[in-house]
Amino acid sequence: MAVFQIVLYGDEVLREKAKTVTKITPNIHRLLDNMRDTMYHARGVGLAAPQIGVSKRVIVVDIGEGLIELINPEIVEARGEETDTEGCLSLPNVVGEVTRATEVRVKGLDRYGNPVEHHAHGFLARALQHEIDHLDGILFIDRAVRIRRIKPGA
């Protein structure tokens, strides 16, 4: 498929509430494939459609346990709390300490329009919350208790 340029902090699309996907079409399949390829190429663990300039409620996540594709994801339950370091492909060389739920239950649709549910904890829960935030125009720096710059490649 294609590797897209990742939209960087300052672009308006990152601050918009992404549009709900109302119909699963071949274009949505291509979007998922392109997002997957872009995420892997950038060596990320998650990517939301707005990060490639597409205002749709679509995310991909892979923390090393296999690819998760979600259309119109929503967090329906959250438990616990933990503060940890996060970064973002749209904010290179910036990290922050962000408090998030340690466990989440997320519902959405798979690429075929079938309802799916993921019970996640730890790093996967954090990644899902981070990507779903993107769909509402929220960046990790908005939730960070501390932000710092890091050296490129660090």
Describe this structure in words.
A five-stranded antiparallel beta sheet has the order 1-2-3-6-7. It is an alpha+beta fold. It has helices spanning 26-41, 122-135, 140-143, and strands at 46-48, 58-61, 68-79, 82-88, 91-100, 103-109, 115-121, 144-149. Helix content is 22%, strand content 36%.
Keywords, please?
154 residues; alpha+beta; five-stranded antiparallel β-sheet; 8 strands
Rounded radius of gyration (Å): 14 Å
| Elements, N to C (H/E) | HEEEEEEEHHE
Oligomer: single chain
Largest sheet: 5 strands, antiparallel
Order of strands, main sheet, comes to 1-2-3-6-7
Q: What fraction, in percent, of the residue positions are helical?
A: 10-25%
* Uncertain segments: none
Q: How many beta strands in the DSSP annotation?
A: 8
Please give a quick description of this structure.
The protein has about 150 residues and is α+β, with helices and mostly antiparallel strands.
List the helices and strands and how they pair.
Blueprint: H1 26-41, E1 46-48, E2 58-61, E3 68-79, E4 82-88, E5 91-100, E6 103-109, E7 115-121, H2 122-135, H3 140-143, E8 144-149
Antiparallel strand pairs: 1-2, 2-3, 3-6, 4-5, 5-8, 6-7
